[in-house]
Design brief:
Radius of gyration: 48 Å
Structural class: alpha+beta
Number of helices: 13
Largest sheet: 4 strands, mixed
Distance between the termini: 31 Å
Order of helices and strands: EEHHHHHHHHEHHEEHEEHHE
Length: about 375
């Protein structure tokens, strides 16, 4: 609230953006409001709503204050609230509107950077994005080492086979020539013996060699190993999946549900619900935006409800409203219409019983604009 002196009646009065009229002579004093008082008023209202858990209304108050005065404090508060409700586009727009040379700009930029931090990391303490850890090692040295071991093993096997074959061929040369002939191997390791060639070409029972050379005894035919018969595994039979049966629409008793939730006032509303695969379709009438909000909040807590369709839910504003304790024109406007801009229309429509926008009598009946 800001204290000013009314230029018409010379009375010191308190005014704010929502109550800019003099309560004595009803003069419009909104031009006397200072930017600091305007910013402080909306900042305090938004803070109170946020503390009460009404984040959407708090963000709406910030935006309403910015329409009066573009202030960095309101911008930063709006960015914080937008982040809390998940509206990151609006959060970035609030931060971008803070002047670059303002000390609050760095706070807003940190708010944006906090969205880009890895989950669980403390902002500003994690490793920079895309920078590899200093203790990480390249896998290539390990791969090259394994490749070298594999090549060395293959070379060792190859050399072992080569020198083993040469030793088998050259060993009989140191013995008796008859031993070499009997074995069917020529003394010259590079030239196979005639007997060996003959034994390989002719059957063992043929005539003796004319040269009189000793015919080596025929080797016994190796017994062929029985061929393994592969065992055929049975072909798996696919089990057909059960065909999904469409779930019919189920009537959702809104009245019983609201009574069980301890909301008898909302249970009196004539609303019918139909539940179809997680989608709750509401049909009926509510009289205020506040009723609709409370109704949807209660129904969203049902675990079987995933989506609420309000296409057939009609808003029917009543002709009058009875003032209750704690009411103000701002509260009534938000409660009925979901928007505080109707407060001036309500005041003008009830000038005959309202001497001032701030003076409301509990129990009085106010006319409401359609």
């Amino acid at each position: 609230m800001q204290k000013v002196t009314c230029p018409q009646c010379r009375t010191v009065v308190e005014i704010n953006p929502d109550a800019p009229l003099c309560h004595v002579c009803s003069a419009d004093l909104r031009t006397l409001l200072t930017p600091e008082a305007t910013t402080r008023y909306f900042y305090q209202r938004a803070s109170d709503l946020a503390a009460a858990g009404q984040l959407d209304k708090a963000l709406s108050e910030v935006n309403r204050g910015l329409s009066y005065e573009d202030d960095s404090d309101l911008r930063l508060l709006g960015a914080i609230l937008a982040k809390r409700v998940g509206d990151y586009t609006q959060m970035r727009s609030h931060v971008a509107a803070i002047p670059v040379d303002d000390v609050l700009r760095s706070e807003g930029e940190w708010l944006i950077r906090s969205l880009q931090e890895p989950a669980g990391a403390i902002p500003g303490m994690g490793a920079s994005k895309g920078t590899p850890s200093g203790r990480s090692r390249s896998p290539w040295p390990v791969l090259f080492g394994l490749g070298a071991l594999l090549v060395a093993a293959l070379l060792a096997i190859w050399f072992t086979d080569l020198f083993g074959l040469r030793s088998m061929v050259s060993a009989p040369a140191d013995g008796d020539a008859s031993t070499v002939a009997a074995a069917g191997v020529s003394a010259d390791p590079a030239t196979p013996s005639t007997e060996t060639v003959a034994a390989a070409v002719m059957p063992p029972n043929n005539a003796a060699d004319p040269a009189g050379a000793t015919t080596p005894a025929a080797e016994a035919d190796p017994t062929e190993a029985p061929t393994a018969t592969p065992t055929l595994e049975p072909t798996p039979t696919e089990t057909p999946l059960p065909t999904a049966t469409p779930t019919p629409d189920v009537t959702f008793d809104v009245t019983d549900y609201l009574m069980a939730r301890g909301l008898p006032g909302l249970a009196l509303l004539d609303i019918v619900g139909t539940l179809d695969e997680g989608t709750l379709v509401l049909t009926g009438t509510v009289t205020t935006v506040d009723q609709q909000r409370l109704l949807l909040d209660a129904l969203k807590e049902n675990p079987n409800v995933a989506v609420i369709d309000t296409t057939s839910l009609r808003l029917d504003i009543p002709a009058t409203y009875i003032v209750v304790a704690g009411d103000s024109l701002w509260i009534i406007s938000n409660k009925i219409y979901g928007d505080s801009t109707y407060m001036d229309d309500i005041f003008l429509l009830n000038r005959d019983i309202l001497p001032s926008p701030e003076v409301l009598v509990v129990g009085s009946e106010l006319k409401l604009p359609p």
